[in-house]
Design brief:
about 800 residues, alpha+beta, 5-stranded mixed beta sheet, 21 strands
């Protein structure tokens, strides 16, 4: 993110104080690290708890003490305080306000000696009253480097004492408050050129950022750092006390830069209300040139490390190949998917993908497993399978979805958020990746000595691993290579590996497991609903649609107040306003579920959620959508997201939603709103063609004149299967699909989907209609004729 002149000026004070940070080790760093936090090692005793005064802090008042005591008495059975500060009976020495919060991340810090506040007016009013700066710490419960900073700094009584005496400390869960995270992450990126979690930001009492970074080592010299966290706290406190006017002035300059960055580029004016032209094929070609220039032709993905799956959008590449007929983008996508599946980033034993790889070869992962990564990766492999026909890509999809249901599926129907990177080692310390790595002896014990040579050869098991004697399993050799190497039949190798994966998973499940964040986030569930619904169609497996329906029903019935979505659900309690992403991702999932099942409820609910976006989130004058609603808490800035990263932006996804709704309904208001949104971000794409890779899919959809496919059956949906098989065997990425059965089903869908008007089965047999912009070919009464129409560039077949 480029720094403006005002931001550069704002940094002058801190450069003079020698406080501009060196590279902080959050987003791009990983490694098997030990941690001394005693989590789950000893259960807390029953009875009352003494609420001790935190180091350097004033005693809690009687009301807060009473609330903390009541919360302790009501804690769940088996509750284990996450802290090294324990009494002989296992109860925590310290309890702070975060013990009252439902967020799993905030609860992890409830027994730090830091006098934490949750985000809210109480904290800022306290800072104003005491004349102190605010220390804002943002992270999430499965973040490895958040745990490292907690152990090194927030569990340290000396650092806690200094914080409590000189600051008001606020802890935020970025997954519950992405709006807060987005504002201050932008400030950190402007100051440092990068960002990550944990995020550490110094604020004035009126919430303005004046300094920040990500992970800070606790003291000077630790991890090679010139300045540690304690020194930074002291120097910035001194600057705030002795030169407050300058700090305040610089904070104002930085805030102006943040507001400018978060406003995106939707300020152009023109004849159209969206201002400017809708991006065309030039934007797609420019993005393709950029992806080609940085493609890693050996390992797939982008050149260099770390490697994130989202850095090279394979779904865009597959569409480029389909649009231009150039096989190169398809080859780039296929190589990337192939190398990712073979690397340690892919959990060969339990399924699913870790968050990113720390090396160029996808070999050593950062071990977090996020729900959104599973959903987005499944979609990439699903389209890879559809575009290439490679069955191994379909198997990856099945493995990812099996993992998500088994390890992240909530019994109520939704999906939990994530699994931690860390888990307990035998010595009680927490270690990154411990649950996933293997010694040679552990592999032999799990699979047996007879099978071990095959497993070791195939998965790269050796005495010297990636972390001492421990290693990450990956596809080191193909089955054919192993067969030649060990002089055994390929079929035998394949059989041994299949059995070994079962044995390895059984053995791994007996280890102490990573913490699971059991927060159900609406947006991430929307992504998983999409993945399941699309897999149900592409893999002809109705079980996936059934699972998607359960998740959709949960979010729509348990996470909504009236027409308004809530952000998250934890232990049955919903919390927080819904954000743009929650609506956009869920709408996309519902549209995918509608195509997969024909359930009229899903498109009806999608339209209802879009109406909320139009009323409360949309910038009707300049196009696009704000991240927060017009009646949301007023923050320092109101973001209009314009970047597709590990998660796509709500603007990119909602632009595609509107284009799809237009195809389903022929209501031109959807198209006009989509065009305004696309035009709003045209300047951003012109300067940085790959900044919004998901938005490129919407542009491609709009340019492609999507096929409108309707199949009507006389008796039941199963009669459409011969036609659907032909559709699965093709790869038309830009299309909408409606399947309806004559009678009540067709009537219910026709109310929501005018595409069905005048569509009937013919002669008591299914009929398929392929149209473009409302112009249709003759109804296809046999699958072969339907396949020809799908392959045609126009509606006439």
């Amino acid at each position: 993110m480029a720094r403006s002149a005002r931001v550069a000026a704002a940094l002058a004070l801190f450069a003079a104080l020698a406080l501009l940070p060196a590279a902080c080790g959050s987003r791009g760093s990983s490694g098997a690290q030990g941690s001394a936090l005693a989590t789950g090692s000893r259960r807390a005793a029953g009875g009352r708890i003494a609420i001790e005064t935190l180091p350097g802090a004033a005693p809690f008042d009687a009301a807060l003490t009473k609330r903390l005591e009541a919360a302790w008495a009501a804690r769940p059975a088996g509750y284990a305080p996450r802290t090294r500060h324990l009494r002989p009976d296992g109860s925590p020495l310290y309890v702070n306000r975060l013990f009252l919060e439902p967020s799993p991340y905030l609860k992890q810090h409830a027994h730090n000696p830091v006098n934490w506040y949750p985000w809210g007016e109480e904290a800022f009013e306290t800072a104003r009253r005491l004349g102190r700066p605010v220390l804002l710490s943002v992270g999430y419960s499965t973040c490895h480097w958040c745990h490292v900073m907690e152990e090194e700094s927030f569990e340290d009584p000396e650092i806690a004492r200094y914080l409590n005496q000189h600051y008001v400390a606020i802890k935020v869960d970025r997954e519950e408050r992405p709006d807060v995270d987005g504002i201050y992450m932008t400030a950190v990126q402007l100051m440092t050129g990068s960002g990550g979690w944990p995020m550490t930001v110094w604020l004035t009492p009126d919430r303005k950022p004046f300094y920040g970074g990500s992970y800070f080592p606790p003291r000077d010299g630790v991890r090679g750092a010139r300045l540690g966290f304690l020194t930074a706290l002291a120097r910035l406190d001194e600057a705030y006390r002795t030169d407050r006017d300058k700090v305040t002035k610089n904070a104002d300059l930085l805030l102006a830069g943040v507001r400018e960055a978060l406003a995106s580029d939707s300020t152009a004016t023109g004849d159209d209300a969206g201002g400017g032209a809708v991006p065309g094929a030039d934007a797609l070609r420019a993005a393709m040139r950029e992806y080609r220039s940085r493609f890693d032709a050996t390992n797939g993905g982008n050149q260099g490390a770390p490697k994130f799956p989202s850095d090279l959008p394979t779904r865009f590449l597959l569409r480029e190949a389909a649009r231009d007929g150039d096989p190169k983008p398809r080859e780039m996508a296929a190589l990337t998917l192939e190398r990712m599946a073979a690397g340690g980033i892919h959990d060969l034993v339990g399924g699913g993908f870790h968050r990113y790889a720390t090396d160029e070869e996808w070999r050593v992962p950062h071990f977090e497993k996020m729900l959104y990564d599973q959903a987005l990766t499944a979609l990439a492999y699903l389209e890879g399978y559809q575009a290439t026909g490679r069955s191994e890509f379909a198997q990856v999809v099945r493995d990812v979805l099996a993992f998500a249901d088994r390890d992240l599926g909530a019994p109520e129907g939704g999906f939990y958020g994530a699994l931690d990177a860390d888990s307990p080692a035998p010595d009680g310390r927490r270690e990154e990746g411990r649950a996933y790595t293997w010694t040679q002896a552990e592999v032999e014990a799990a699979v047996g000595k007879e099978r071990a040579p095959v497993v070791e050869a195939a998965y790269g098991v050796a005495a010297e691993g990636d972390f001492g004697d421990r290693g990450v399993l990956r596809v080191a050799r193909t089955e054919a290579d192993v067969a030649r190497r060990l002089a055994v039949p390929v079929a035998r190798v394949d059989s041994i590996l299949a059995q070994a994966r079962v044995s390895l998973l059984a053995a791994r499940s007996k280890r102490p497991q990573p913490h699971r964040d059991e927060k159900i986030v609406a947006s991430w569930n929307g992504l998983m609903i999409s993945a399941l619904a699309r897999a149900s169609f592409a893999l002809a497996d109705p079980r996936y649609a059934a699972r998607a329906s359960r998740a959709a029903d949960f979010v729509l019935t348990k996470m909504r107040a009236g027409e308004r979505l809530r952000r998250s659900s934890t232990d049955g309690a919903v919390r927080g306003d819904g954000y743009l992403d929650d609506y956009a991702f869920l709408i996309a999932g519902l549209l995918d579920l509608y195509e997969a099942t024909g359930g009229a409820r899903w498109i009806r609910e999608a339209k209802s959620l879009d109406r909320v976006l139009a009323q409360h989130y949309e910038d009707a004058a300049r196009g696009g959508f704000y991240f927060t609603a017009d009646d949301h808490e007023r923050l320092l800035a109101r973001e209009k997201p314009a970047y597709d990263g590990a998660e796509p932006s709500g603007n990119s996804v909602e632009a595609m939603n509107l284009l799809r709704l237009y195809e389903f309904t022929a209501d031109d208001r959807y198209r006009a709103r989509a065009d305004r949104a696309l035009a709003a971000f045209a300047p951003r794409l012109e300067r940085a063609p790959t900044a919004m890779s998901e938005l490129l899919l919407a542009i491609d959809f709009r340019l492609a004149k999507p096929k409108e496919i309707v199949i009507v059956t006389p008796r039941d949906r199963g009669e459409a299967e011969p036609f659907l098989a032909k559709l699965r065997a093709s790869y038309p990425p830009n299309r909408v699909l409606v399947v309806a059965t004559e009678g009540k089903d067709l009537a219910a869908q026709a109310k929501e989907t005018p595409l069905l008007e005048d569509r009937v089965a013919i002669g008591g047999k299914p009929a398929a209609y392929v149209c473009v912009a409302g112009v249709c070919a003759l109804p296809a009464r046999d699958p072969a004729a339907f396949a020809k129409q799908l392959a045609s560039k126009g509606p006439g077949g």
